[in-house]
Structure formats: structure tokens, C-alpha cells
Amino acid sequence: FQSPPQKDEL
Amino acid sequence: MNIFRFAGDMTHLASVLVLLLKIHTIKSCAGVSLKTQELYAIVFATRYLDIFTDFISLYNTFMKLVFLGSSFSIVWYMRSHKIVRRSYDKDQDTFRHYFLIVPCLLLAMIINEKFTFREVLWTFSLFLEAVAILPQLVLLQRTRNIDNLTGQYIFLLGAYRAFYIFNWIYRYFTEPHYVHWIPWIAGLLQTLLYGDFFYYYFHSWKNNKKLQLPA
């Protein structure tokens, strides 16, 4: 299960 | 994290520090648009909803707190500080920024990566940030002369998103499946809006004369 790509940008 | 994104974050940090420095030290917000500052406070409030739920890194959380804190304190200074508020030129800062908020919200409800509350508000914050500088640019053209600090603030604010564009290009080529059209297009439009300001800013710097935008 691929965790949703987190929003790692500001 | 790559050098472009780090440079972008530092440039963005520098822009808010320049503005806070100006307002806090000389207790003046002449030439600064409160509307743009309010729009930025909304941008950060709607973009960082995940600050307490998704921990990315200390750096990420720290920077979010700095951007939230600085944007809201600038709005507070310009609205409520007894000395600073006197230098706010509300007769000139008349851009109807609600005409920006509603279309951005509607557009975010139509164009988004996932129709959830947080995702729609995140997308809204990207669209709103792209146009948030408009009241400030309109105010500049009205007030004609601007002081160096305000000019530097706008320059840094425009430059940070330009660095982010290089960051997105870099990530597109180095990370498989890294494709996010929404921030890319919003970020590109945002940077283009600074186009003529950059042109006049560069020429005023080159000829070492006062920065003046054409009426």
C-alpha cells in the first residue's frame, strides 16, 4: 500500500 | 530537499524578514499593501492545515510556523499597531482582494488532485498565492515612488517562486512519477506576474536610480 505522496514542500 | 528548493525557502524567509524588519524598526508600512499581506496570511493558513497532522521534518514544521507567524504578525502590525497603522495608505490600497479569493476557491473546487477538504484548500492556497501580489503591484504603480526595503521585499518574494520552478524541474527529472501540474502552473503564472517588476527593478539597480514603475 503506497502511502499518498506527502506534501513535503512549503 | 535540493539546492533550488532550499534557496527558494531562504529567499522566501528573507522576504518576510525584510518586511518585518522594515515595519518593526522604522515603525512604518508606507508603500506596503495590507491586502497582499492578508492574502498571504490566508495562503499560509489554508496551505499548512496539515502542520499538526503530517510531520515531514523539523525544518518543514519550523518554516511553516515562521511563515504563519510572520504573515499574521505583519497583518496585526498594519491593522492594530498604533504607530504603524498610521502609515498605512488605505485610500490607495483599494484592490478588491475578495474578487481574487472567490474565483480561486471556485477554481480549486473544480481543478484539484483530490476532492477533499484539505486538498481543495491546499489547491486554493496555490491559486491564491499566484495572484496575492496584485494588490501590492497596483499600490506600487499608484504610489510611484517606493523605498528600497519594499522593493527588496517584492523582489525576494518573486525570486523565491522562480527558485521553486527550478526545484520542480529538478525533481521532475530526478524523481520518478513526480508530476504536480497544479503547483507548477500556479507557480509559473505567479512568477510571470512579477515580470515587469523584475524588469524595472533590474534597470533601476543597473542605472542606480530610484525604482519607479510606469503609471
Automatic annotation (TrEMBL), chain B:
Q: Where are the transmembrane segments?
A: 55-77, 98-115, 121-140, 152-170, 182-202
Taxonomy of origin reads: Eukaryota, Viridiplantae, Streptophyta, Embryophyta, Tracheophyta
The protein in question is named ER lumen protein-retaining receptor
Which protein family is it in?
Belongs to the ERD2 family.
GO CC annotation: what is one? endoplasmic reticulum membrane
Q: What organism is this sequence from?
A: Cannabis sativa (Hemp)
Localization, per the record, is: Endoplasmic reticulum membrane
Recorded coiled-coil stretches = none
| GO MF entries | ER retention sequence binding
PROSITE patterns reported in the protein's UniProt record: ER_LUMEN_RECEPTOR_1, ER_LUMEN_RECEPTOR_2
Name the UniProt key words of this record, in alphabetical order. Endoplasmic reticulum, ER-Golgi transport, Membrane, Protein transport, Receptor, Transmembrane, Transmembrane helix, Transport
Q: Which GO terms describe its biological process?
A: protein retention in ER lumen; protein transport; vesicle-mediated transport
Q: How does it sit in the membrane?
A: Multi-pass membrane protein
